[in-house]
């Protein structure tokens, strides 16, 4: 038996795994006892990884060779890699010649490894000359990026998992960590058991499993987080719990914010958020007066039309109380995907460049152009996820290249996304699994390797970079994602008349070495972090040339990543939801994860045992809302928003407030049927959701749509 150390491909905890294999097959997986993210633990998803790599599932679910469709509506036919990539290069070169480079869009994924991301970012911005590259991480953490940059000056989570062990107060907001980050949650449970004096506050409209260990639960009305955080700051100021000396030494902008929160009185906050005044007072006291307060937050703050303001308002609380830059304290955004962080590091988003550089900054563009050896990086802002599919639906983007993600299920407002996929002249889908909804729209399907086969690096929520190592050969004719990008780029360069290649890589390590050189002198400097060092152990960044260790937490010297070294308060003003509930759509629908499923279920959905926890989609609502509509558990209902309608069984859940409803995000068209508002067949939870987004982060409000729920009468 061979043992290979690698990393779990599911969530941002980034657990280390040991893959057991024999004769070219994965036979088992166990937690890596030496990995600092999990010390040997795995959750239900991680501990069943080996089963998802079985030969039977590979045969049934994987895309094993390139496939090309002659005409839309025809079945795709197998082609060779050479033919597939030549076809892609000819078609995209033709579209660029006719319509310019901005007629092409790349939509990639937080499941890609850092090396894959780097190649595709350079391909779009360096070779093709378009900033139209964005990622499904836009749907999960771009508000956290914007929040960190606005306040602390850099997209760098300042805390680490070990801080859970030192915190006196844990403030968990918009995160069901018990299900979404299970191994981290086990650590929270253990810390709580060891130190019963630790206070845990959970902020969430829905009472989830995470609330089970809370000393205080704040079930706020959906979308009112900014009002809550401003109100807590109002109380802290009134009670004298802010740290005036620390604010004076280390921050700017407090006076403007004080003016805003003056109006956020406990009476107003209690009324808007639907909370008790005494609970607000308790939360403010525990947060401000604890020796160390650590906030853990996730999609409840990020997936919002006020996502950036929510992030900034929470960070304001840390700055006002000096709860940052010391063990057990800080605002710690949890990433949903295994390598959302790596994508941020290489700048694989429409508004970013390598090593946390900004596309809008001319000096940053010049630095990256020099690094890549290209005349310039285009200055026109790229299209972010929602904008990209809207542009394709409007006929402005004519070629879509989709890598390792499933927008025909996961993007909000599916009617628009599917119109985009149908209208685009050329859709390339680079995928490991043949079963995703997006594959049905592809003109060209390119088989990619996946967990167990891939080789490279990922970065988890605490800035820790881990190696991903192969234990198996590639399935069928699948190629690594970075390799597909390089092989395509070489062909495109030839058609563009380039003599020297921008993509001289033969290994993921050679991509990594260029990426780490791009970080020299930046906040995330990893110039000292070679593959050889990563072979020995995962490391946290920054890790500059000559360093012997990464940094567990940031800003311990009180200097932030801004020009003057001071953190900036943001004057956060509460704004209501993009689509508040109203008389015709009287329910607030929120979406979220299940414990045992992952994203669109392309991997977890292959295992029957992972349906044991929740076997089918349901819409959950308060028992009184069920009774008022004469509904019983299992009754079928129509759930209808302004964009579409689905049919789903109802289920009572006392964890939800009145007029609130919840459906898990994973269920696609195989499980949920329905139609758009114009009657076109449409399915899955995102038939309902809105693409309204935060103006700063462009992250859509997947956490809230106004819906009506009506009993589906049998004819
Ligand atoms: Fe994988 Fe996340 Fe579970 Fe760890 S907690 S085993 S990274 S899914």
Report the top-level CATH class of the largest domain.
Answer: Alpha Beta
Which structural class do you get from the secondary structure elements? Answer: alpha/beta
Order of adjacent strands in the largest pleated sheet: 5-4-18-17-16-6-7
Q: Give the mean pLDDT.
A: 96
Major pleated sheet = 7 strands, mixed
Envelope shape? globular
Helix share bin? 25-40%
Number of strands: 30
| CATH domain fold name of the largest domain | Rossmann fold
Overall number of domains: 4
- How many DSSP helices? 25
Bound molecules: iron/sulfur cluster
Radius of gyration: 24 Å
Uncertain regions spanning at least 5 consecutive residues: none
Provide a descriptive summary of the structure in words:
It contains 25 helices and 30 strands. Helix 10 runs parallel beside helix 16. The strands form seven sheets. Strands 5-4-18-17-16-6-7 form a seven-stranded mixed sheet, with helices on both faces. Strands 23-27-24-26-25-30 form a six-stranded mixed barrel. With 715 residues, it is α/β, with parallel strands linked by helices. It is globular, with a radius of gyration of 24 Å. The protein folds into four domains: 2-61, Single Sheet (N-terminal domain of TfIIb), CATH 2.20.25.90; 67-137 and 338-505, Rossmann fold, CATH 3.40.50; 142-333, Dimethylsulfoxide Reductase, domain 2, CATH 3.40.228; 587-711, Barwin-like endoglucanases. The chain binds iron/sulfur cluster. Iron/sulfur cluster binds next to helix 1 and helix 9.
């Amino acid at each position: 038996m061979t043992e290979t150390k690698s990393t779990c491909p599911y969530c941002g905890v980034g657990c280390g795994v040991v893959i057991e294999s024999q004769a070219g097959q994965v036979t088992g997986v166990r937690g890596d006892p030496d990995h600092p993210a999990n010390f040997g633990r795995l959750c239900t998803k991680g501990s069943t990884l080996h089963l998802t790599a079985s030969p039977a599932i590979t045969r049934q679910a994987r895309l094993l060779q390139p496939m090309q469709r002659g005409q839309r509506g025809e079945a795709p036919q197998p082609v060779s890699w050479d033919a597939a990539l030549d076809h892609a290069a000819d078609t995209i070169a033709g579209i660029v010649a006719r319509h310019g480079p901005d007629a092409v869009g790349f939509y990639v994924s937080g499941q890609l490894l850092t090396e894959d991301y780097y190649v595709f970012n350079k391909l779009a911005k360096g070779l093709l000359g378009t900033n139209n590259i964005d990622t499904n991480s836009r749907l999960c953490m771009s508000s956290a990026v914007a929040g960190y940059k606005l306040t602390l000056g850099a997209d760098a989570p300042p805390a680490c998992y070990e801080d859970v062990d030192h915190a006196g107060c844990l403030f968990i907001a918009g995160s069901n960590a018990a299900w979404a980050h299970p191994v981290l949650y086990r650590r929270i449970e253990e810390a709580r058991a060891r130190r019963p004096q630790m206070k845990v506050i959970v902020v969430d409209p829905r009472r989830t499993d995470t609330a089970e260990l809370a000393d205080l639960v704040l079930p706020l009305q959906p979308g009112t987080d900014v009002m809550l955080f401003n109100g807590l700051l109002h109380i802290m100021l009134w009670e004298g719990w802010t740290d005036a000396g620390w604010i004076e030494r280390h921050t700017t902008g407090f006076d403007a914010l004080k003016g805003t929160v003056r109006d956020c009185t406990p009476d107003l906050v209690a009324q808007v958020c639907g909370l008790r005044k005494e609970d607000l007072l308790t939360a403010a006291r525990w947060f401000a007066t604890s020796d160390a307060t650590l906030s853990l937050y996730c999609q409840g703050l990020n997936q919002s039309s006020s996502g950036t303001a929510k992030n900034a308002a929470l960070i304001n609380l840390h700055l006002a109380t000096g709860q940052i830059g010391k063990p057990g304290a800080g605002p710690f955004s949890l990433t949903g995907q295994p390598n959302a962080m790596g994508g941020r590091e290489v700048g694989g988003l429409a508004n970013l460049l390598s090593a946390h550089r900004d596309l809008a900054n001319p000096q940053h563009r010049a630095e990256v152009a020099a690094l890549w050896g290209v005349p310039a990086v285009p200055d026109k802002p790229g299209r972010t996820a929602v904008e990209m599919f809207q542009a394709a639906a409007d006929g402005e983007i004519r070629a879509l290249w989709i890598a390792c993600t499933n927008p025909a299920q996961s993007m909000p407002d599916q009617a628009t996304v599917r119109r985009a996929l149908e209208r685009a002249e050329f859709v390339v889908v680079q995928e490991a699994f043949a079963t995703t909804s997006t594959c049905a729209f592809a003109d060209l399907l390119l088989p990619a390797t996946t967990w167990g086969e891939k080789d490279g690096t990922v970065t988890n929520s605490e800035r820790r970079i881990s190696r991903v190592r192969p234990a198996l050969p590639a399935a069928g004719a699948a190629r690594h994602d970075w390799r597909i990008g390089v092989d395509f780029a070489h062909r495109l360069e030839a058609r563009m008349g380039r003599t020297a290649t921008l993509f001289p890589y033969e290994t993921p390590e050679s991509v990594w070495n260029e990426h780490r050189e791009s970080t020299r002198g930046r906040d995330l400097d990893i110039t000292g972090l070679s593959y050889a060092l990563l072979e020995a152990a995962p490391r946290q960044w920054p890790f500059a040339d000559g360093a012997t260790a990464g940094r567990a937490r940031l800003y311990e010297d009180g200097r932030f990543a801004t020009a003057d070294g001071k953190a900036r308060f943001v004057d956060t003003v509460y704004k209501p939801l993009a689509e508040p509930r109203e008389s015709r759509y009287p329910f607030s629908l929120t979406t979220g994860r299940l414990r045992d499923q992952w994203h669109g279920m392309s991997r977890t959905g292959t295992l029957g045992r992972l349906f044991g926890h929740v076997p089918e989609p349901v819409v959950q609502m308060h028992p009184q809302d069920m009774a008022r509509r004469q509904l019983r558990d299992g009754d079928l209902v129509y759930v209808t928003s302004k964009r579409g309608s689905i049919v789903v069984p109802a289920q009572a859940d006392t964890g939800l407030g009145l007029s609130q409803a919840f459906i898990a995000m994973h269920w696609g068209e195989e499980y949920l049927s329905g139609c758009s508002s114009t009657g076109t067949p449409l399915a899955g939870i995102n038939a309902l959701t809105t693409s309204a987004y935060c103006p700063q982060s462009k992250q859509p409000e997947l956490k809230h749509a106004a819906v009506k729920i009506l009993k589906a009468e049998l004819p």
